[in-house]
């Protein structure tokens, strides 16, 4: 796609973020647009760190699968075997695999079929959500939507439950699990869990319109991300992640992770274990959408090409991501 077309779409849509395209590690296009901090007029750069919302689910999946590799968990491990008396509405036959593939049927604290306007959803007590265990009251009380394994239904809460199961099985906190089992093996030095109320100078503040004014998303999201997403990263680290993942540096059996488990025709996609898959090609996708954050990265393992769009607004990434996909 010509640079002039990318610049035109960015200007027409008021894009704030970074567009990055590389092939086998060689950068073909990298450019930043808009402001990382609007109060202080700090511009985004290609090295700015952005929250990637549900893009972090891929990291959760790989942390869990590394525990499966080491025999700490199994795909067939039931959630109930580690939850004990917690979250009693989760059915006894729900397994790790069901949770990884969004086929668990459990009720979701943030059901995107109900909360269609993500910017209107306020999580409540966001400052208290600093650990996976602190999510238990939020996860509780949601009746099952269907029987485990019956169908695909995207479930944010299911990935928080996965983080909880990983912690209880390993005795290691979720954030440390991801750091040691995903970030370190992949060499992701600019990726990490940042508190939204103390973002460093190189991280973009997420913005959404409230009462006609663009305001920070600090009250809309957990102060510290957990299993269902929200980790901060850079465009370069995203590309490094894809290369490390397909090289087998994180988990050896990459084919198992990207094997299609579900067709998702309403999205014109398929789903593996924590990753979206193109409906007809080998391309693998991480994507995220939340209040003040949007992200899509598509990797083609055949050519080694990565196309990444990161934005610090809710709708920002999508026009450019669609154009790049075409």
From TrEMBL:
GO molecular function: any one?
beta-lactamase activity
**What keywords are annotated for this sequence in UniProt?**
Hydrolase
> Recorded E.C. number(s)?
3.5.2.6
Q: Where is the Beta-lactamase-related domain?
A: 6-319
User: Which top EC class applies here?
Assistant: hydrolase
Entry-linked Pfam families: Beta-lactamase
Q: Answer whether the UniProt record assigns the keyword Protein transport to this protein.
A: no
> Which Gene3D superfamilies does this chain map to?
DD-peptidase/beta-lactamase superfamily
Annotated protein name in UniProt: Beta-lactamase
Organism whose genome encodes this protein: Nonomuraea gerenzanensis
């Amino acid at each position: 796609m010509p640079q002039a077309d990318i610049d035109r779409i960015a200007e027409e849509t008021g894009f704030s973020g970074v567009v990055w395209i590389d092939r086998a590690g060689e950068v073909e296009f990298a450019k930043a647009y808009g402001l990382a901090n609007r109060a202080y007029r700090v511009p985004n750069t290609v090295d700015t760190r952005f929250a990637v919302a549900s893009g972090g689910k891929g990291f959760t999946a790989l942390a869990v699968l590394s525990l499966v590799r080491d025999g700490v968990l199994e795909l067939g491990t039931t959630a109930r075997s580690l939850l004990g008396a917690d979250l009693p509405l989760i059915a006894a036959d729900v397994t790790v695999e069901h949770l990884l593939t969004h086929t668990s049927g459990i009720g979701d604290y943030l059901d995107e079929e109900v909360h269609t306007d993500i910017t209107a959803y306020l999580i409540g007590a966001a400052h208290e959500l600093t650990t996976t265990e602190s999510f238990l009251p939020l996860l509780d009380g949601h009746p099952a939507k269907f029987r485990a394994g019956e169908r695909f239904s995207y479930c944010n809460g299911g990935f928080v439950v996965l983080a909880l199961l990983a912690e209880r099985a390993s005795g290691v906190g979720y954030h440390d699990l991801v750091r040691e089992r995903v970030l370190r093996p992949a060499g992701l030095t600019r990726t990490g869990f940042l508190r939204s109320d103390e973002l460093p100078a190189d991280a973009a503040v997420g913005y959404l319109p409230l009462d006609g004014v663009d305001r920070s998303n600090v009250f809309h999201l957990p102060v510290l991300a957990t299993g269902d997403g929200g980790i901060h990263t850079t465009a370069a680290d995203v590309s490094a992640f894809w290369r490390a993942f397909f090289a087998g540096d994180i988990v050896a059996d990459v084919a198992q992770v990207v094997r299609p488990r579900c067709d998702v025709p309403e999205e014109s996609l398929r789903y593996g274990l924590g990753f979206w898959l193109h409906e007809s090609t080998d391309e693998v996708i991480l994507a995220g959408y939340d209040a003040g954050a949007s992200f899509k990265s598509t990797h083609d393992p055949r050519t080694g090409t990565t196309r990444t769009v990161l934005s610090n607004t809710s709708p920002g990434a999508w026009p450019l991501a669609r154009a790049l996909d075409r």
